[in-house]
Amino acid sequence: MSYSARSRAIEPFHVMALLARANQLQAEGHDVIHLEIGEPDFTTAAPIVAAGQAALAAGHTRYTAARGLPQLREAIAGFYARRYRLTIDPERILITPGGSGALLLATSLLVDPGRHWLLADPGYPCNRHFLRLVEGGAQLVPVGPGERYQLTPELVARHWRAESVGALVASPANPTGTLLRRDELAALSAALRARGGHLLVDEIYHGLTYGVDAPSVLEVDDDAFVLNSFSKYFGMTGWRLGWLVAPEAAVPELEKLAQNLYISASTLAQHAALACFEEETLAILEERRGEFARRRDYLLPALRELGFGIAVEPEGAFYLYADIGAFGGDAFAFCRHFLEREFVAITPGVDFGRHLASRHVRFAYTQSLPRLEQAVERIARGLQSWQPDAL
Ligand SMILES: Cc1ncc(COP(=O)(O)O)c(C=O)c1O
């Protein structure tokens, strides 16, 4: 049986092999601390769950319009008005099955075969796979602490090729947690505009920033495409709901794609998400944001103290991307060592690209503070037994 080249070109998440082993160890009775998982440890906030239950009881079990429930699109537009002081026409908002659905729509719309997008490396791995799926490609741009792991106009100028048609950036970013400021977004937007390129900004970690607010690219560029999600800040990963904000002219094409690709996003999830923007829910989400901030404030200095290199203080998301150069050895072997010896699961850099990937690991602080403290104790101990050259 032969499968498509497109499918074969897509890499699995390498961390899945570690996760399978972690689950096996757990089944054998070991107390595994999961710092590899990119989703909030909190369950969905009670008012959202109640709204979902009420929607089910009321029989909201049919398809919605492909663009999504009008009242949810209006609620999101209201959220942009309150949080960002932005007027976004609800007609420009499409509700999607997760931010992943928004990525599928955007790449399907904007990428022709053989066309490339600029992506920061390290970055979210699925981006390049979505581009491959639509027969386009990713131009991976190595980034580091110098540019706070983000694309800059200079990097765009240096890496732009005849086949380049856009750039996809995430702010805050996964795996590094760094943000793009308003002036940086404006400069990036200008750099792409000058080349006739598109700008797609992944704002899925908005709301999860600590001490600063992340500006939306829509504050400086009304023509940018924005993907967002109910997964992270709103804590609804398993409900599979996100959205895309697009320029008005692109909406009919996107609607057509949505109709064909998935008909509509989950109706139940859309009704539940209406409760996301109520004061009561937002108060819970803000409390959780505070908890993530406390975790970051604990884990960041604790890891630095142990010798992990975290050159740039992450201001958002719930990840720390750490250089393990001080300890030597390969990141995948390093992750395996900590899992086997100390039952701490972390993600190897290879899952986020190629640039210095074997020297980096990602910690997700999606565990309670006491669990993080335990993890740090175990990591300190595991470093004593780490032999970089052992196979
Ligand atoms: C940067 C980034 N974008 C998009 C996604 C997709 O998330 P979802 O489909 O749950 O909205 C993720 C998930 O981890 C992510 O980290």
Describe it:
Keywords: Aminotransferase, Pyridoxal phosphate, Transferase. One of its GO terms (biological process) is amino acid metabolic process. Residues 31-379 form the Aminotransferase class I/classII large domain. Its EC number is 2.6.1.-. Pfam families: Aminotran_1_2. This protein has 391 residues and is of the alpha/beta class. The protein has 2 domains: 5-43 and 281-385, Aspartate Aminotransferase, domain 1 (Alpha-Beta Complex); 46-277, Aspartate Aminotransferase, domain 2, CATH 3.40.640.10. Helix content is 41%, strand content 14%. The chain has 13 helices and 12 strands. The strands form 3 sheets. The chain has a 7-stranded mixed beta sheet with strand order 2-8-7-6-5-3-4, sandwiched between helices. The protein has a 3-stranded antiparallel beta sheet with strand order 9-12-11, with helices on one face. It has a two-stranded parallel sheet with strand order 1-10. β3, α6 and β4 form a beta-alpha-beta unit. α5 (98-110) packs across α9 (251-261) and α11 (279-306) runs parallel beside α13. The model has no long low-confidence stretch (mean pLDDT 96). Bound molecules: pyridoxal-5'-phosphate.
Topology:
Layout: H1 5-8, H2 15-27, E1 33-34, H3 46-57, H4 70-84, E2 93-96, H5 98-110, E3 116-121, H6 126-133, E4 137-142, H7 153-159, E5 164-170, H8 182-194, E6 198-202, E7 225-229, E8 242-245, H9 251-261, H10 267-273, H11 279-306, E9 319-323, H12 331-342, E10 344-345, E11 347-348, E12 360-364, H13 369-385
Parallel strand pairs: 1-10, 3-4, 3-5, 5-6, 6-7
Antiparallel strand pairs: 2-8, 7-8, 9-12, 11-12
Helix pairs in contact: 2-12, 3-10, 5-9, 7-8, 11-13, 12-13
